[in-house]
Amino acid sequence: MKYRLGALPLSAAAPLVALLGLLMASLPLAGAGTELILIGLTAAGQLAWHLRHLMLSRLVTWPTLAWLAIALLSYQLPEAWVSQADWNRWEGRLMAGSHIDDWRPPLLMLLCLGLLNLSLLTRTRANLGAPLLMGTAGLALLAQLLAPHPTDGPLALSPDGPLLAAQACLLLAQLVDILGGWRTSRNSILRALWPSLLLATLTMGLWYHQHRDADRQQQQAIAELGQRLGQRLSDEIDDHLAAMRRFAASWRWQDAPPSADQWAYQAELYHQDFPYLLNIAFIDPRSRILHVHPANAYNTPLLGTRLFEAQPDGREALGKALHDGTIGQTRVIALLQGQPGMVHYLPVIQARDARILGAVGVVVGLRSMADTLFRQVAPDTAALTLLDGERLLAHQGTARRPGPWRHASPLTLDDLSLTLITRPGHDALLARRPRLPVVTLAAGLTLAYLLYLALFARRYMQLQHRQARRSNRELRREVRNRTRLQQEVEWLATHDELTRLPNRRRFLQVLAEHDRVRPLSVLLCDIDHFKLVNDRLGHLVGDRYLAELGRLGHAVLDAAGGVFARLGGEEFVACLPGSSAEDAEAVARRLQAALAESRLTHQDGAPVTLSVGVATLDEGPLVADELLQAADDALYRAKSLGRDRIERATSPADLPVGGP
Ligand SMILES: Nc1nc2c(ncn2[C@@H]2O[C@H](COP(=O)(O)OP(=O)(O)OP(=O)(O)O)[C@@H](O)[C@H]2O)c(=O)[nH]1
Questions:
Q1: Whose CA is nearest to atom 5 of ligand 1?
Q2: What domain of life does the native source organism fall in (predicted)?
Q3: Class of domain 504-648
């Protein structure tokens, strides 16, 4: 919750930061309009999620993503599928006032933010690659910060500060929001994130490189176009000069200036080849215009005009032709027709006596000439401007949307230095733009995303396996413990812990197991004066004596094919299936002997002795209680007869069967 509290104001602040920033920096809102709207929608999606209006968040996030997807498709689809013109039409409807290529660069960032919103909604943030989306968004932000201004490339990244700040706010809000959530799976996320983020970084680097390369190629193409046009312009002037020289020379055999008809006929032939010539005039030696072609509303009033007076800028050039007999050429001057241009004056020299009959004036309207030339370039391709220094000579500016940069090619026409500015149109640039960078970006980022998903899933499965293995191990250990405990409980239920001999219950079971064996003897053994041992030597020694007797008894009875058990207290019992009373007595004696040999003594050094009651069932059914009672009776008798004795019961009545 505390993270959400931090994220909330950041999400809310993002669109405000963008809007205020743009207003304060007096940046045109129209240009940033689409991006501003997208930022607003993304922020609204985030905010709605933070405020728990999930439906609203969904309603905002999905259409925003759809919008972004359409924009993305604009440069993903091949031209053959959807033409640039079609996209432009759609784009005009979707984003009036701004152009798709203006906001393509932040598109990646906004797409990442939109997808992050989606991952918020689906609550599968780390699984859906949200960390990589964040990393990529961070890279896109960084790229926008570091990238140069768009003037150096048609699709360079937008550096609009307020919009960047808004994007950073949205990213930060996402970061703050998930910091707590990823704490537990941080290791898994990091392991998947680094390799995929590295791939994303390499992809973006490669994309940027290819992107700049494409820019350079386009700039070069435009430069070549400018140079080509410039070359054509200068070739054109050379051509018409050569033609005019021939034209001027064609009058040298005349004795007098040409007649109006002659002039109109001949000049028309040349004018057809060079329609941009505003006129072709014959000027007499006194600089008067004698004939002019074509005879139109601009030219006809010029007839009779004395050029030396009327056009001082051209006087020097005309003087060369009329006085020196050489070709004269004006600079770009204001023509009598009202537009800038140049005039070439070619002397008409009589062949016979080298008399200068006059001059041919060829008026080149640069605007007309450039227009003729510019018409060869499709208007949407580029805007073309012809400049003489700062002076605008001609312009063709029909490119619907001028691109972000222009190319200036210097033109040299004789001694004239002009500049041809070529400004390519956006649409033409986009249409010619190679798709490789975008394909690289899309493929690389998709791969990085898949890599993240694969690594994360692998790591997740590894953890699951590890967890399962650990659980299995614990389960096995638990089962072992429980089995051991169970066995212990079972053992304790049938054994005596101190002597580790079978207890009374087990003894009765053994007895029952041999209920068909005859003879069946039972020995009831009791340590004599054991109380004294306890009292004088202590209970611990008493316990040791009991354990020792248990060990001895087990050894003796085991050798005799019987079972030795502890009945309780210092009383022991033995079962000897198949042993007659004599045999049983002999075993009892062996037991007494073993005890004697063990040198268990009282405090005064007297040996610890054992009294034994023997009962044998030779025939008839076994009644355990009765048999034991008979043995007990015999034992009682042994005790009362002085202890350290063996007394035999006579079955079924308890009759002494003898003693030592
Ligand atoms: N150390 C120890 N003493 C036990 C245990 N079970 C019973 N005893 C003791 O065994 C003694 C049995 O004494 P009694 O049966 O009264 O008689 P006794 O001293 O053996 O004399 P007699 O049987 O008449 O020869 C008691 O002092 C009990 O406390 C045991 O598990 N450990």
A1: 569
A2: Bacteria
A3: alpha beta
Residues with Cβ within 8 Å of residue 225, at least 6 apart in sequence = 377, 381, 382, 422
Cα torsion 637, 641, 642, 648: sign: negative
Tell me: pLDDT of 3 over 70. Answer: no
Let me know if 295 is exposed, middle or buried by CB neighbors in 10 A (0-12, 13-18, 19+): middle
For range 277-285, the mean pLDDT: 90
Question: 3-class SS at 523?
Answer: strand
Reply yes or no: is the peptide bond before residue 652 cis, omega within 30 of 0.
Answer: yes
**In the chain, count of helices (H) and strands (E)?**
19, 15
Q: List the residue whose alpha carbon is closest to atom 31 of ligand 1.
A: 569
Cβ(124)–Cβ(52) below 8 Å: no
Rounded CA separation 174/149 (Å): 28
Q: What CATH number has the domain spanning 250-372?
A: 3.30.450.20
Which residue minimizes the CA distance to atom 28 of ligand 1? 531
- Residue ranges of alpha helices (H) inside 356-435 are 366-374, 426-432
Centre of ligand 1 from the C-alpha of residue 125, in Å:
75
- Would strands 340-349 and 391-396 be described as parallel, antiparallel, or unpaired? unpaired
| 302-326 per-residue burial string, b: 16 or more CB within 10 A, e: under 16 | beebebbeebeebbebbbbbbeeee
Give residue ranges with CB within 6 A of ligand 1: 526-532, 534, 539, 542-543, 546, 569-570, 639, 643
Backbone φ, ψ for residue 499 (5° rounding): -95, -10
Q: CA–CA distance from 486 to each of 128, 493, 502, 505 (Å)?
A: 49, 10, 17, 18
The token pair that represents 328 in the structure block: 């004269």
User: How many Å apart are CA 51 and CA 107, to the nearest integer?
Assistant: 26
Report the distance separating Cα 592 and Cα 586, nearest Å. Answer: 10
Nearest residue (CA) to ligand 1, atom 21: 529
Give, for ligand 1, the residue of 500, 525, 531 to mutate: max count of ligand atoms closer than 8 Å to Cβ: 531
Domain residues of the chain, as ranges? 2-184, 250-372, 504-648
Query: Which tens digit of pLDDT belongs to each residue from 446-490?
Result: 899 899 989 988 888 888 999 999 999 999 999 999 999 999 999
d(CA 635, ligand 1 centre) in Å: 15
Q: Is the peptide bond before 294 cis (omega within 30 degrees of 0)?
A: yes
Q: Whose CA is nearest to atom 27 of ligand 1?
A: 531
Nearest C-alpha to atom 4 of ligand 1 is from which residue? 569
> Residue 352 corresponds to which tokens in the numbers above?
């016979």
H/E/C letters for each residue in 493-504? Answer: HHECCCCCCECH
Helix (H, G, I), strand (E, B) or coil at 522: strand
**Does ipTM surpass 0.90 in this model?**
yes
Asked if 588 and 614 touch (Cβ cutoff 8 Å), the reply is yes
Question: How much distance in Å is there from the Cα of 430 to the middle of ligand 1?
Answer: 110
